[in-house]
Each structure stands twice: as C-alpha cells, then as structure tokens.
Amino acid sequence: MTDPAYQRLGLPVTASPYAVLRAAVRALHPDTRAVRGFREARKRFYRLMLCAHAARQAAGETPTG
User: Fold this and answer.
1) What is the pTM of this model?
2) Residue 45 within any structural domain of the chain
C-alpha cells in the first residue's frame, strides 16, 4: 500500500530522487515551509516520500492514472 501523500505527488516510476524531493517541497504550503520548528517534521516527510518512491521502483509498479 502506497502512502496517500506520495500518491498525490503524481510522479512517474522513472522519476529521479531529486524530482521526488522537488515535488514534495512544492506539495507543502509555503507557511509550513517557513516555520523553523517544523524542520524535523519536514525532513521526515521528505524521507518518507523518498522511501515510498524507492519502494515503488523496487516493486516495478506501473504508473496509474
């Protein structure tokens, strides 16, 4: 089961990790990105998106939608 937040990024399986990070950053509201206290949470979110993408690539899933 893929993380719903990762699915909302709408990335193809062939996307690079850098593209995943860019999409994850754009997915967050600017106010959320600006709060210094959320730094660890943002880093955790980015790591989760990268892990979900790596798992999807390892499983060889085909793009849906």
Assistant:
1) 0.84
2) yes
